[in-house]
Amino acid sequence: MIKVGVLGARGRMGAEVCRAVEGADDLELVAAVDQGDELESLGAAEVVVDFTHPGVVMDNLRWCVEHGLHAVVGTSGFDPGRLDTVRGWQAAKPGSNVLIGPNFGIGAVLMMHFARKAAPFFESVEIVELHHPNKADAPSGTAYRTAELVSAARAEAGTPPSPDATTDELHGARGTDVEGVHVHSIRLSGLIAHQEVLLGGHGEIFTIRHDSMNRESFMPGVLLGVRSVRELPASLTVGIESLLGL
Ligand SMILES: NC(=O)C1=CN([C@@H]2O[C@H](COP(=O)(O)OP(=O)(O)OC[C@H]3O[C@@H](n4cnc5c(N)ncnc54)[C@H](OP(=O)(O)O)[C@@H]3O)[C@@H](O)[C@H]2O)C=CC1
Ligand SMILES: O=C(O)C1=N[C@H](C(=O)O)C[C@H](O)C1
């Protein structure tokens, strides 16, 4: 049995994770912590799952690393600077592995994988992410990570920047720029989590779209992370693609 603690346990994702852990024969939910609760009860866990808020996740993660707990993090908001900070904590206190999953949906991981593969073959690429209006951050962590992967693949292949003649822009009309990739964020009631990667070439458009229809869809990826994090080869891993053999 792997002893699991959940941070953000009363939130939309955290509550789903608690249900999934309680329903798994090889996992035991030993702590369910939310805003205002003491972190100390997490000390009974081997693996902590964090689905909280980009504004608090770094404090949570530092606490986990300092207490030697492995962490599976779904909370968004990780840029290269934050990843370096986590590496610094791990260097100071080795022993805990951290797995940060920008998206735990299997289809979403495949969307990012295929976008990275396709990116060098097209002149233009832009990303549209669409989410429920309760989401705190924009762009989404998934879109940010997709843009990073797409940008790196194009740079490695020597693909020039996407053409764009815009010289006169109302602020925000072209979205935000993540490493040279334009990302557009929609917030709309009725949505859960969706993303399109639009790739444009000579006389053809290739669109890769993923839709999360409910939050249960993230659970196979989260549980895979919980089961794998203790044995990961690196102390900090971003994305679950390696766990899927991608
Ligand atoms: N990687 C992935 O696959 C996915 C990632 N996410 C990400 O997960 C995060 C959470 O999303 P979601 O569940 O929708 O958000 P919610 O707002 O529904 O849940 C977050 C929960 O964390 C609580 N919380 C806030 N601060 C703390 C703290 N310091 N300690 C413990 N708990 C705290 C909140 O309490 P209160 O409401 O009182 O502030 C709330 O109950 C977001 O960053 C989202 O982008 C979401 C879906 C999938
Ligand atoms: O807030 C959400 O809902 C989601 N957040 C993650 C993100 O920022 O990419 C993952 C998924 O898109 C759902």
Keywords:
about 250 residues; alpha/beta; five-stranded mixed sheet; about 30% helix; binds ligand LZUJQKHR
Please describe what this structure looks like:
The protein is an alpha/beta fold and 246 residues long. Helices cover 30% and strands 25% of the residues. It has 6 helices and 11 strands. The strands form 2 sheets. A 6-stranded parallel β-sheet has the order 2-1-3-4-5-11, sandwiched between helices. The protein is globular and about 55 Å long. The two termini are 27 Å apart. The site of ligand LZUJQKHR has 9 residues, from helix 5. The ligand O=C(O)C1=N[C@H](C(=O)O)C[C@H](O)C1 binds next to helix 5.
- Written as H for each helix and E for each strand, in order along the chain, the element string is EHEEHEHEHEHEEEEHE
- What is the chains' assembly state? single chain
**Widest beta sheet: strand line-up:** 2-1-3-4-5-11
The value of Rg in angstroms is 19 Å
Number of helices: 6
Short characterization:
The protein is α/β, with parallel strands linked by helices.
Compile the SSE list and pairings:
Blueprint: E1 2-7, H1 12-22, E2 27-33, E3 47-50, H2 57-66, E4 70-73, H3 80-92, E5 98-100, H4 106-118, E6 124-131, H5 141-157, E7 176-178, E8 181-187, E9 193-200, E10 205-212, H6 219-228, E11 236-238
Parallel strand pairs: 1-2, 1-3, 3-4, 4-5, 5-11, 6-8
Antiparallel strand pairs: 6-9, 7-8, 9-10
Helix pairs in contact: 2-3, 4-5
The protein binds NADPH dihydro-nicotinamide-adenine-dinucleotide phosphate and the ligand O=C(O)C1=N[C@H](C(=O)O)C[C@H](O)C1.
Residues 7-8, 10-14, 33-35, 51-54, 56, 74-76, 101-104, 141, 218 line the site of NADPH dihydro-nicotinamide-adenine-dinucleotide phosphate (NDP).
